[in-house]
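input
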Amino acid sequence: MRKAILLAGLAILFAVAAAAEQTETQTQQPKPAAPRLSLIDQVKRSLKRLGATVDESKSSAEMVVSNYNDPKGGKTAVVVVNDKRKSLMGLYIYNFGSVKNAASREEVYRYLLSANDAITIGSFFVDSEDDIGYKYLFSNALPFNQAAFESAYLAMAAVVRERRAEIRQLLGAGRDDKGSNE
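output
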């Protein structure tokens, strides 16, 4: 008789446990997936984390114009462009000046080449309008890597802070440089 009661008790216990598990499974609804942010929205979120501001009036669906106030001084405007056609994201910084009226273009070009050799990320260039810029390109074919983006952004700001005055001096504009990039 004890065995029968024990077996009946175990059977009831298993039945209650199975019913509770089934009820729990039925009441758990799958959580809706969080909306996936666009690449540009992820960039804006990263810029906010860095303390940079976004100029919405100049930004577009595939471009963000940001301003970074460097804690060590100076303000840097960085343009982030998502080129879907080439699967590249580019960070661009201008406002170094133009080589159009430089006393010695060759000296400026030599300095830019030397700087490109010395820096670890990005490169200086002269565009078709003879303006000096600094850029860094990376693939956007892989998922957005916030840490890599933020590191590149801050490294570029540091290079600009270190090189801007000398470039402007070579261009003949160093006398009125206040450390601003605007």
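quick obs: Residues 39-176 form a domain with the Yope Regulator; Chain: A, fold (CATH 3.30.1460.70).
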